[in-house]
Amino acid sequence: MIKKPYFYLAVTILLWGATPIIVSGLSVTLPIFEINWIVTGFSIIILSIVILTSGRAKIFRSYKKKDYTAMFIMGAAGIFPYTALYYLAFSLAPADAGNINIINYTWPVWIIILSVFFLKEPLTLTKIMGILLSFAGVYLIISNGNMKGLQVHHSAHYMPAYLSAGAGAFFWGLFSVLSKRCRFEPLSSLLIYNISAFLFFSVIVLFFTGLKTPSINEWILLFILGGCINGLGYLFWILALRYGDTARIANLVYLTPFIALVYIYIFRGTRIHAFQFAGLTLIVAGPVIQHALRIRKT
């Protein structure tokens, strides 16, 4: 019988792994910032329900004005640019959703790099080797499996999407590092972060990009993405970390982009290439090695 933390983790991975195929599919017919706006709105609704029904609402009274200010800034500088750039990448190249998602999983590498500057962690030789290993995986992906050189046509067509996904990963890494410094209660702070991001998406949609009425099927997918994948997915992630071994759970979550490739194969028939597995393995190898070494030292 599966243990409780691993059940929570499995649900998290299955939910998060569906993001690429849903976002890339919706982006073909809906403006990408409208997708961001609606999805963030659904996330706020679900998180609010979870917080109210779990008795966590009282925690908001313990936060001071400076705490709310810090959370709002983190939402504006973390959740907003990360989600905007991550989803934008899928809209730029919806047919290459699998590779885009793999590039997005460089965020653990950015955590290692940014921790040196913001958390004053030492930059060891092992960390440098891990970083180089991860970026070798990135090169393998953007070169379409050709380590000898970039294919001009492929690079020119997909590079904007890869850069967008990579930039999004940087902001998620920055957000994660800053979160370590603040250490707010996870669910309540995530609600504030999303409210902050929602306000910025509202300005973009209402004043710059406009709106397009989604179909019934699109509304369903938007709710699945915002309410289930983002909202409930984060809840299951918190539960997995709470009841399980944090380091082991953190390493196993790297199965998510592999599951995303399987979803894309099942629902679109897109072939999974060996270089994708190799590139993704290299990308996550650096952070996993760092985790393992940290455990051995403690």
Identify the notable features of this structure and list them briefly.
298 residues; globular
Report what the structure shows.
With 298 residues, the protein is mostly helical. It is 79% helix and 0% strand. The chain has 13 helices and no strands. The protein has helices at residues 4-16, 19-26, 32-53, 65-92, 97-104, 107-118, 125-142, 152-182, 186-209, 216-243, 246-252, 256-268, 274-297. Helix 3 packs across helix 4, helix 3 (32-53) crosses helix 10 (216-243) and helix 6 crosses helix 8 (152-182). The longest helix has 31 residues, at 152-182.
The low-confidence runs, each spanning 5 or more residues with pLDDT under 50, are: none
What is the CA-based Rg, rounded?
Answer: 19 Å
Task: Let me know the largest β-sheet.
Answer: none
Average residue-wise pLDDT: 90
Shape by Cα distribution: globular
- SSE class: mainly alpha
- Domain tally: 1
Helix residue percentage: over 70%
Estimate what percentage of residues fall within beta strands.
Answer: under 5%
How many angstroms separate the termini? 30 Å
Q: In DSSP terms, counting alpha (H) and pi (I) runs of 4 or more, how many helices?
A: 13
Total strands: the figure is 0
What is the H-and-E element order?
HHHHHHHHHHHHH
